[in-house]
Design a protein that fits this description.
mainly beta
């Protein structure tokens, strides 16, 4: 900057700019009344129907009406609940006037995919069952010849219900002959039954090298055509589980599936068959403990207006807060205490030779202490919505966490699932009816 300009800077006086006034006239007018309009299929052919209770009412004067559907949540302490999603408010949950389910079912024999005509299908699996169980009533008794075993072993069928698929072997049939015809039904289990008696041989085994627990499971399934999905347990105990030293694991006269169940149980997990694939899923009995369910996102949500029927059985257990989990000669021994509790109500001691690491003992103890307090086994029957429908629960699998949306919503763990599909005579027409019944384990002491 030139020196002459810098010298003049302090001599500049502050002055107010001249006032400028702008005047404009905006005439006030009343806005037109906004009416509720529902667009329905076929609009233009029939006048749209305006549902009652949804008409906008213009407030008088300068009042502005603001209506909230859900009451404010109450809370105590420093934690402030912030609910998100449609399940956060019961009255705001969308409720269609009519639920439409397009049921479909079919059975074929594999691998040729020969159709099998049936009049009813039943499928069931619980947390204590490694296999899915199957039962079918044949609509054509002559199709029994297609399902009898031969030199190649038992026949395999594929069952499709509302887009969900199961496979099973046929290992039994029943025939009731009465003039002029006969009724024939068949039963079976998941393909994992091929790893169990009477199809699989009983073996003896002694571990001769240090192995990860998952490696021991994989060794049991080697050359069988089956694999194990161990990802859920690995997330709890680390990749591959924990090291089992040489000589710890051994058995006599045991099938492959029995061995897999023994290995899974070491950390409090269970083994169950995949619905259709040659996979054994190994999962914790409680992926999240009941006291953490409030903060755990559910796998499925069931709105109370799709529940066809339900029943409840109360179960009472001591409120255990302590369990001693121990291995044997080459194992560890750990007292597991529920965090924040005194550890005075003790569950029975757990002894397992596979408890060779603190990770295993902690996970086993957590699962033991999760099964405590006041509980209920609640059987809930709902439709099995098609697999393509994404805004309904669809198929519920054992060990999935389910939230039931009621005025006071709650969560429960699915411990059993049963699917039924049968042809019924309704008003002189044959109608396919498909239901699923889910047993939910609800915890009052820890989960409310």
């Amino acid at each position: 900057m030139p020196p002459s300009l810098r010298a003049r800077d302090p001599q500049l006086a502050w002055r107010h700019p001249p006032r400028l006034t702008l005047r404009a006239r905006l005439p006030w007018q009343h806005a037109p009344v906004i009416t509720w309009k529902v667009h329905v299929p076929g609009e233009g052919v029939h006048p749209p129907h305006e549902p009652p209770g949804f008409r906008y009412i213009s407030p008088p004067g300068y009042d502005v009406h603001v209506a909230f559907q859900c009451p404010a949540a109450t809370f105590s302490g420093r934690a402030v609940p912030v609910p998100f999603g449609p399940a956060a408010c019961y009255v705001a949950w969308p409720r269609p006037r009519v639920y439409i389910v397009n049921n479909s079912a079919g059975v074929v024999r594999l691998p040729e995919r020969t159709p099998i005509y049936v009049s009813s299908i039943g499928l069931q699996q619980g947390v204590d069952d490694v296999h899915w169980s199957m039962r079918m009533a044949l609509a054509d008794p002559a199709h029994l010849e297609l399902l009898k075993p031969d030199a190649g072993g038992p026949k395999v069928v594929e069952i499709t219900i509302n887009g969900y698929v199961w496979t099973a072997i046929v290992d039994a049939f029943q025939q009731d002959r009465a003039h002029p015809g006969r009724a024939v039904s068949v039963s079976g289990r998941s393909q994992t039954a091929l790893l169990d008696a009477p199809y699989a041989p009983q073996r003896s085994f002694v571990q001769t090298a240090d192995r990860l627990l998952q490696q021991l499971i994989d060794d049991e399934l080697s050359l069988t055509g089956f694999t194990a999905d161990y990802s859920a347990v690995a997330a709890q105990t680390g990749v591959g589980g924990w090291i089992v030293p040489s000589g710890v694991y051994h058995y006599d006269a045991q099938t492959a599936i029995a061995s897999v169940r023994t290995l899974a149980a070491a950390s409090g997990a269970i083994a169950r068959a995949h619905p259709w694939d040659k996979v054994i899923v190994v999962q914790p009995r409680y992926a999240a403990s009941p006291w953490a369910w409030d903060l755990t996102a559910p796998d499925k949500q069931i709105q109370d207006d799709i529940i066809l029927r339900d029943s409840l059985r109360l179960v009472s257990k001591p409120l255990y807060d302590y369990v001693l989990v121990s291995g044997e000669q080459m194992g560890v021994s750990d007292p597991i205490v529920r965090d924040g509790e005194a550890g005075t109500t003790r569950a029975s001691m757990v002894v397992d030779p596979l408890i060779t690491d603190h990770v295993a003992s902690r996970e086993r103890g957590r699962n033991v202490l999760s099964d405590r307090g006041e509980q209920a086994a609640i059987d809930v029957t709902i439709p099995l919505f098609e697999a393509a429908v994404t805004d309904q629960p669809g198929l519920v699998l054992p060990l999935q966490l389910v939230e039931v949306i009621e005025p006071t919503s709650w969560k429960g763990l699915a411990t059993s699932v049963s699917i039924s599909a049968e042809s019924r005579d309704v008003d002189g027409r044959s109608v396919l009816v498909v239901d699923q019944t889910i047993t939910l384990e609800r915890h009052y002491s820890d989960a409310g």
